[in-house]
């Protein structure tokens, strides 16, 4: 599988990254190990996880995902073969079990989070350590417009960056990245890195799929291009909606039916369902699986450094990796842009 450079670092990663947020909730430790074995067998060398996983987040399961990856690393001894990315949770009142859900991104909390992740992962270094979401007021996870009235005290980016720099100096993490960030946030990290000789962010892990293309219109593409920051695209199938399985059978077993109703409202909006129905019809009219068209499209975008895929079975994983071979015709691309013009960023 094609390898790409992450940001301006020496990290070379497969263009597909194995996501892991189902490990410990929808997937057992045995399933997780089978997915890791299979992914590496198909040429994937890049694994993404987070201290808060699995999803749906809970006090009882938090950390299981890293633990399952750690037990696989310990069992197989394949640490040097993978580029391992994890994340520190930002503050979130819904997750008080993660360091009290406040000041998560200051020096004390960052050190404690890194030490915990290293212990769970059975490793002594993390290749890419990412800030899962910012400390400051910013619309994320389905909220789309900035609200100045929601301003709140936050750990300044400069302080977070300084603390991450100390972790790099200590050899506990090699490179850094951000997630659920804006163009302003990306540029702010770079500005402080250059001013103070601190590490540059290599990546931004943001939502990107056929129903959520704000990356292209929020100045993110230009900022990342000019600053040498790679996009790690997450949720390329819009939580499974772009496979069309819920359109074919609204009761299909999957993340959007097994978790409590209302858990993830952004992926069940009527406009998302309508857009997914049109994308599925387009794919099928060209003899493609809806999932493979949606994935092949993300895989091929010029600004995507790597696409983080997720699966709850080996069959899904196989289908999603196979899509890396698919080249979409100009006609399909035109059809995608026509649908996008009518359903712009409905899943953002
Ligand atoms: N930074 C962040 O805030 C953030 C947020 C979300 C995700 N992520 C990262 O990105 C990774 C991928 O995100 P995601 O899981 O949301 O990606 P996704 O591609 O949008 O959804 C993946 C889910 O869709 C279903 N699916 C996948 N392939 C399928 C197929 N071929 N046929 C039918 N159903 C299929 C599976 O769930 P079911 O079987 O349950 O339907 C699978 O778990 C995560 O593991 C995580 O590492 C990061």
From TrEMBL:
Q: Which UniProt keywords apply?
A: Oxidoreductase
Q: Which InterPro entries match?
A: AKR (IPR020471), AKR_Detox_Biosynth (IPR050523), NAD(P)_OxRdtase_dom_sf (IPR036812), NADP_OxRdtase_dom (IPR023210)
Give start and end of each NADP-dependent oxidoreductase domain: 15-339
What GO molecular-function term can you cite, just one? oxidoreductase activity
Q: Which organism is it from?
A: Massilia yuzhufengensis
User: In its UniProt entry, what is this protein called?
Assistant: Predicted oxidoreductase
